[in-house]
Design brief:
The chain has 16 helices and no strands. The protein is mainly α. Helix 7 packs antiparallel against helix 8, helix 8 (103-109) crosses helix 9 (111-131) and helix 10 (136-172) packs parallel to helix 15 (307-327). The structure holds iron/sulfur cluster (SF4) (2 copies).
Amino acid sequence: MALIKSELKQELKKYGAVDFNACYNCGNCTAVCSLSTEDNSFPREIVRYSVLGLEEELQSSLKPWLCYYCGECTTKCPQQAKPGELMMSIRRWLTARYDWTGLSGLLYKSGLLTMIAFIIIAIAELGFIMYEDFNVMKIMHYGHYFEMFAIAGVFIVIFLPNIIRMWYFTMLKTEVKMSVKSYSIAVKDLFVHMFTQKRALDCNENKFRWLEHFILVISYLSLLFTTVFLDWFASENLFVIILGYIESAVIFIVTFDFVLSRIKKNKEMNTFSQPSDWYFVVWLLLMGVTAFLVRLFIDIDLMESNAWLYYFHLMILVQWALIIVPFGKWTHFLYRSFAMYFAKIQEISK
Ligand code: SF4
Ligand code: SF4
């Protein structure tokens, strides 16, 4: 029998959900959603679960991840119940449910706590810089090691257990029997969706947004590779240097457009920005611009006399790697890719 959790509505509001209680179950939202299918129909069902407090049903559903937030359902809802915004809020809530540390939930619900976490990191970095006698070259060397350890650490300590928890909630606990073979057949979908997010192309009027996201994902991943594995800041290889400049400039340009869209609120998806949305775009923009300037200052021999620039870049990088990537909006990229993978396995197994 379905368990009803009466506090669920209040809980979802803390993750950004608004007005969904006004829903009178007409189904318009599902009818207009270009991503909803017969087998995976949403968002009406998800709105119902939320209104009724069906926490287990929500937690085991992959459907919130199949939505790419085009906002069409919100525009057409006769009750202004904002189903698109609810889907986004549930993705934040799910992220907190998957996270074994509980930190995602705390940070999503409190912009103030996130700011405190950012400040603690800034103070710790300042202490480290003072401990190293403001030796910028030595600190750059440690910064490079930090990048490598942060990637491995976050993946092993946070992402791996969280993906296992997601699999447990959405696959193991459901009654659909899935064969081992279906896991290997569907694995292609995991990587295709991870790198292309091609399903977003089916979202109405969303082609340019998809292109921007695609360029951003590719630039971000390649800059990560260039800085971590090709040691961009220390490299003397002209190809690597130019590659890093291009990647960081593209990240800056695309995220600048994202920030502008959020300020102007010119798209439905930008109408309700949560602190986590702002942190994501602003920190990504700062990463792009500071990485570009650090390498430029190295090339024109201004780095040693302007060490503050690298310290600032390092602070943004550490906050990004220890807060936004493991516990913030970055995780949506990962969970959505796995949701596509799991949904494909379920489809094969039916
Ligand atoms: S959210 Fe709006 S469109 Fe969707 S079922 Fe409810 S009232 Fe209808
Ligand atoms: S926001 Fe777009 S993709 Fe998401 S449920 Fe609404 S119509 Fe569908």
